[in-house]
Amino acid sequence: MQSLNVGDLIFQLISFLVLIAIITGVGLLVKRAVTTDRRLKRIEEKVDEINDAKRRERP
Question: Per the confidence metrics, is the pTM higher than 0.70?
Answer without folding.
Answer: no
